[in-house]
Amino acid sequence: MWTVxxxxxxxxxxxxxxHHGNLRRALLEAGLERLxxxxxxxxxxxxxxxxxxxxxxxxxRHFASKEALLAAMAAEGFHRLVVEQAHAVQAHPDKGEGxxxxxxxxxxxxxxxxxxxxxxxSRFAATSPDREMHASAQLAYSGMLHSLAAVLDKPADDxxxxxxxxxxxxxxxxxxxxxxxxxxxxHTDNVDTLIDEVFKAKLETGFLQKQ
Amino acid sequence: MWTVxxxxxxxxxxxxxxHHGNLRRALLEAGLERLxxxxxxxxxxxxxxxxxxxxxxxxxRHFASKEALLAAMAAEGFHRLVVEQAHAVQAHPDKGEGxxxxxxxxxxxxxxxxxxxxxxxSRFAATSPDREMHASAQLAYSGMLHSLAAVLDKPADDxxxxxxxxxxxxxxxxxxxxxxxxxxxxHTDNVDTLIDEVFKAKLETGFLQKQ
DNA sequence: GGATGGATGTGAGCAGTGTACACATTCATG
DNA sequence: CATGAATGTGTACACTGCTCACATCCATCC
Lengths: 211, 211
Hints:
The structure is a homodimer. Chain A is mainly alpha-helical. Chain A has 2 domains: 1-62, no CATH class; 69-205, Orthogonal Bundle (Tetracycline Repressor, domain 2), CATH 1.10.357.10. The first copy, chain A, has helices at 23-37, 45-52, 66-90, 95-112, 114-120, 123-127, 131-152, 159-180, 191-205. In chain A, helix 4 crosses helix 5 (114-120). In chain A, 40% of the residues are buried. Chains A and B meet through helix 5, helix 6, helix 7, helix 8 and helix 9 of A and helix 5, helix 6, helix 7, helix 8 and helix 9 of B.
């Protein structure tokens, strides 16, 4: 996808490509693809630079460390998640359904990209002072917060909305984690119907009831 | 704590200690302590053996790989979690309260041992074929399942119980994860009261209602 | 249009890692 | 007390993240 410009060509991409043609982006893509394609999500910086076809240290012109690369990948993951959730919300005229669908989208995102999902919430996500990543995560949260506020017809800073948002996020996040850990698979036949059941029960008895 | 037996002494511990005195246990303890005591939960096998005062490869007589050591540490974590939850359940005569208290114990375990908690649910927990660890995790799940079955006064294999258990586990697990990721801290003043609120809301409207 | 300086990529090298292999020591048991 | 198994040690190897000095390329200005 990202071809090296051997001498002077391939000016087809976005600006900011000096020798390689946006090496930063290429490394990110390679890393993300690596997460998707293999069983073992551990990878070395050297492996990525080998894939991209560049010397090891070229990476250090774009990322201060391997950790910084991982943080950028996580941020990209949050961006994609936010997009998918926004789509889910907008696809449903009924706000309650839209909110529930966003939850389903969350779980399915985790199922489709388990390694990326883990990366997004791994240790360094809490530790690293990466600004971009925290901003992305914040975006995901505030999106859900406002969606729930619309459902409950209350301001976003209403305590009930805040607690409800954390509750919903916890449920969805926990379910995602347990599923990708294979800790739910072993107890149920079909994960899809389980998700439906969990959500249905939630809808009937839980916080989505405007009471 | 684990002193090396220079020549022939320190037979004070459980059997199975040849040269060192249960090196396996010592490595586990060192690893767990390492997780508690430091900011950066990454550690090398060599570091652990240095702490214990033994050559690097001695560890390989007790663990097939570093991954196996991590799996054993995770299993130990599950054991401790199960113990704390059991205590929480038994401390309350009312079964519903006991169940809720077990949930609180779950969250607090994660808060007190964030690195260990992460390890227990990290990538390799799903990947690794470590039998002991999966057995321990299973134990945690079935304990909660039976506790909920008692609350609802239904058999443990009742679909409603199963769904409720996964729901409860998801909520508690997700909340734990979000808290230790610092993703909740930034939105609320006091985590403790938040937990109470989440649980209270759950108790009032959720699956704990016998309807 | 050619010089200049900053952005970008390269190569060698360092300390540290996980682990395999051959060997040494110690223990339980005959 | 000899023997074999269990346990610990030393050496070595391929690999890692990362630093430093150097090479290359591009945009820009005279």
